[in-house]
Amino acid sequence: SSISVGLLCLASYLKNKGYSVKIIDGARQNNYEKLFKEAVSASAIIGFSVMTTQVASALSGAEKIRRLNPKAVIVFGGLHPTLFPDSTAGHNLIDIAVIGEGEEALFEICESHKKTVGQKGDFIEFSKHLADVRGIAFKDLSGKVVLTPKRPLLQMTDLPLPDWNLEPKEIKGIKSEGMVLAAQDSKHNIS
Known about the structure:
single chain; alpha/beta; 5-stranded mixed beta sheet
């Protein structure tokens, strides 16, 4: 049907903040496996937008990522992690679950990772920084799931417009402007 407007908004936000992002759609892109392997090998942080019906396939993807790039940080966001942050972040294949809107949380995760990569004990430092990111769940060094304080909802005026050039070419033209507004309507607590 249509692309994940939530993913497009996240990607647009990160791109606007100076990060290189790529959206891969396993359902509709040609050469998905090749694109997946290339992106995973070159990425430090890999995110999934997950509804409950998609958990099994997302975990299968996370397992492939662990084999291809064991140091990659795997982040699950979307409705399932928002409703079940403890069990999502507690899974051995998942490093971080984003709860609710993800733009600022994902940006802060990226910034924390950038600050700590390559330092001695970088995972220890990264874990310490994650404790300051609001609206996430993650495992601390002992393996215990930590839920950070809730993040306030964003205002639409704080977000860049979706960059439709980020959507994969195979699914260009399949979009709904109404979905963009519904996905970020903070007055009605829709996320």
